[in-house]
Structures are given as C-alpha cells and as structure tokens.
Amino acid sequence: MGWSTRQIADLAGTTLKSVRHYHDVGLLDEPERASNGYKQYGVTHLVRLMQIKRLTELGFSLADIAAQGDGRDHPEQALRTLDAELGATIERLQRARLEIAILLHESLPTDLPPELGAAAAHLTTADRQFITFASTVLSPTALDAYCNLLRSTPQLPTDAEFDNLPADSDSESTRDLAERMAPHVRRLAARFPALFTDTETDGDRQRVTRALAVAVEDLYNPAQRDVLRQVAALNATDPE
Asked: Which residues does the UniProt record annotate as the domain HTH merR-type (predicted)?
C-alpha cells in the first residue's frame, strides 16, 4: 500500500502544491494509480522528494536540480558553483550590515554614501541630491576623491552664501561671489586631481560633464547656476 499525495507531502516536509509542481516540471515521476484512481506514491518518490527539498534548502534552483538528473552522481561542479554564489551573497550581506551599522551609529541619512559620515551633516538638500546623482556617473576613484574632499575641507563663508543665494540675485552679486569662490575651487582641483581627470577617454569625460551639468540645472537656482558658470570660466582662463 502506497501513500497519497497529501501523505507523501507530509512525510517529505513539503506541500501538496510543491509535489504537483515537481510533477509539472519533470522533477518527480508520476506514480501509478490505484483502482480507485488515486495516486499511490512509493519509497522512491519519497526519497526523490527529500532529495529535492535538501537541494533547494542548500540553494539550488529547480532548474539546477533538473540539470543534475536523478542525483546519483556527485555534483561537484554544481556544488562549487553554488558555493561561489553563496560566498558572493554572504560578502554582499556583510557589506550591507556594515553600512547599516554606520548609518545607525552616526544617524546618517540613507540617500548618501555612508563613507561620508559626519561630513554630510551640513549639506543642503540640493547638495545631497547632487552627490547621490554623482555617485552614479563618477568612477570609483573620482567618487573616493569627492568623498575625501567633503570630509577634509572645512566650510568657508562662501559656502553659506552660495547655499542661501536668492534666485533673483543681480549680476554684480553673482560676479562677486564667483570671484571669491574661484580660488577655492582651483585649490581643490589641485588637491584632488582624480575628481577632475579620472576618466578613461575624452568621450567618458564629456559624458560625465554633460550628466553633471543636467544635475546642476535641475537642483540649483538660476543665480547659483550663474555663479558656477562664472567660477568655471574664471578658472578656465587662469594660467595655473
């Protein structure tokens, strides 16, 4: 006397739905039926079900299990591949836990790279959004340079002036602020060259420049954008 579908599912520690799905995808052979038409499962079906359950718990997909056949041979390569995938997953989760720990310890917002730490505390919403966007287009080296810049550079009076600059500021005000900001930006360019030069080709540099220009256009008001354009122009003509 064999087992019914429900009984074998209970014995194998799985569900009726799973047993039926394994039949549908060809992982489990259909059993013979009794005279009353009900399926009658035997020991071989139970062993196969337990094997499938074991492999899925290890992390194999049903497609992987199907590719292994009946599992009588030792699946060394499949196990090594799975082990590598699990190792990568563990590493990713460990990085995520470390990042969460930093966010919790320093009460940081989640929209910024955690390595910025306390350096991000004074940033305006526009600056934070700009950094978040920049992290998607800058190379890892350039992004590291940007983070180092923010961490190691003290705030200057011109920073607050720029942040609070009214959108309708006159040209004299924007010119004055740009002239005072330009030397500071020039010094930063000298201290952190990777931020401005770490691109493989001229095409990459142009792509990044265009992307950052779009972000500036979206995030800063007209007067602030005018100041940034003037700062760039002043430094472009500087002999240093």
From this structure: 1-71
